[in-house]
Amino acid sequence: MIKKAVIYTRISTNKELQNISQQINYCKDWAAKNGYKIVKVFKDERTGKTNDRKGYRRMLKYLKENPMPLIVQDTDRISRNFYDSVAFEKFIITNKIKLISLSETVDLSTPNGLLMFRIKYALNSQYVENLLEKIKVGVERAKREGKYKGRKKGALGRKNKI
Q1: Of 115, 120, 19, 9, residue with least CA distance to 71
Q2: Residue 98 C-beta-side C-alpha neighbours within 13 Å
Q3: Is the alpha carbon torsion for 86, 45, 61, 34 positive or negative?
Q4: Half-sphere exposure of residue 116, counting CA atoms within 13 Å on the CB side?
C-alpha cells in the first residue's frame, strides 16, 4: 500500500558544503524504498534560528489541512531554536503528524521518543547559541585588531536582516 508523505528540507547558507537537492533526493530515495509517495516538498534556504521561513510556514499549513507523515533528513532541519521546537512538537502531536527523521529514531508516541526529541532540540538550540558566542568573540577581536569594518552590504545573499 502506498502511503502519502511530505518532505521538509532546509539549508542555512548557499555555500557548496550544504546542498538542498542532496537532502531532497536522500528523503525521496528513502520514501520510495519504504512505500511512501511524496506529494509535496517544502524547502528553505535560511537559518534554523527562527521559524520565520516561508517553506516552514507553508509546510505547517499544508500538514494542518492534510495530516500525513513528515520526512526530514535530520530534526535539526526543522529548527535550531528551543521554543520554536517546542511549538513544533505541540503542532505535530496535536495534528497527529508522524515525524520521520532519517538520521535518528524519533517516535513521539512514546515517552522515551519524546524525551530523545526534546534532548535533540535542546542540543540544536545550544549549538546556535555557542556559535553566536564564538562569532561575537571573533568580531570583537577583529575590531580590536582593526580588521573588521562591519558586514558588507548584501552579505549572505540577503539584505542584512539579521
Answers
A1: 9
A2: 10
A3: negative
A4: 13
Averaged pLDDT for residues 90-95: 93
Residue carrying the nine cell digits 562591519: 150
pTM for the structure as a whole: 0.71
Identify each DSSP E strand in 12-160 by its residue range. 36-45, 70-72, 99-101
**C-alpha 128: how far from chain center:** 12
Q: Output DSSP code: residue 96.
A: T
What pLDDT digit, counting tens, does each position of 40-88 carry? 999 988 766 677 789 999 999 999 999 999 999 988 788 777 778 888 8
Domains identified in the chain and CATH numbers: 3-124 (3.40.50.1390)
Query: Which whole-number Å values give the CA distances from 102 to 61, 75, 128, 134, in the listed order?
Result: 23, 9, 22, 30
Cell numbers for 90, please give them. 505541540
Give the three cell numbers for residue 97.
Answer: 503528524
